[in-house]
Amino acid sequence: xxxxxxxxxxxxxxxxxxxxxxxxxxxxxxxxxxxxxxxxxxxxxxxxxxxxxxxxxxxxxxxxxxxxxxxxxxxxxxxxxxxxxxxxxxxxxxxxxxxxxxxxxxxxxxxxxxxxxxxxxxxxxxxxxxxxxxxxxxxxxxxxxxxxxxxxxxxxxxxxxxxxxxxxxxxxxxxxxxxxxxxxxxxxxxxxxxxxxxxxxxxxxxxxxxxxxxxxxxxxxxxxxx
Length: 226
Prior knowledge:
By secondary structure, this protein is α/β, with parallel strands linked by helices. It has seven helices and eight strands, in the order αβαβαββαβββαβαα. It has helices at residues 13-21, 45-57, 74-84, 104-111, 173-185, 205-208, 211-224, and strands spanning 33-38, 64-69, 89-92, 98-99, 116-124, 131-134, 155-158, 189-199. Strands 1, 2, 3, 4, 5, 6, 7 and 8 form an eight-stranded mixed β-sheet that branches. β1 (33-38), α2 and β2 form a beta-alpha-beta unit. The longest helix has 14 residues, at 211-224. The protein is globular and about 45 Å long.
């Protein structure tokens, strides 16, 4: 099982040095699940970090490791943390998101089939209330931005043969990855229960990118998958 890591909220120095190196609690054997957390600085990061790690610590399933890395851009960091994982399964969990209930990891292990799995999710604006349940579904236009699957935090992949994010993307990085996973492995295993909670608010990438940046990504992805 992973151990709780405490970072002083009064200073960024300790956490910054750990994140640059990458954090993985010492593990004697390969774990079933690697929970990979690509970290980037954002407003209220201390609150998000505590919430995310607490949800992991409270899991009934204990055969996991936590890999937490801050490197550069979000897609590059996401790839770095995936590549550093050693578990049989890779569970992506963004730091502003968290596991919905104590049996979230057990639910993933019990239902995992094939090469990738996606789950349902709810949303949290910061007050702890879970609202707006999203049920994942596949659609053939997903790579264009019609994201009926959900945030990367709904995704679990098999480590062997897993794919990485396209580092040219920030807005459509999840949609592009889902498209390539589908092309290579077929449809995902879908678990239609709220397994993770997505933190929503002004800190999200969707509010940070300009319309021009989003348009460029749409054009890039259209060319890539045409």
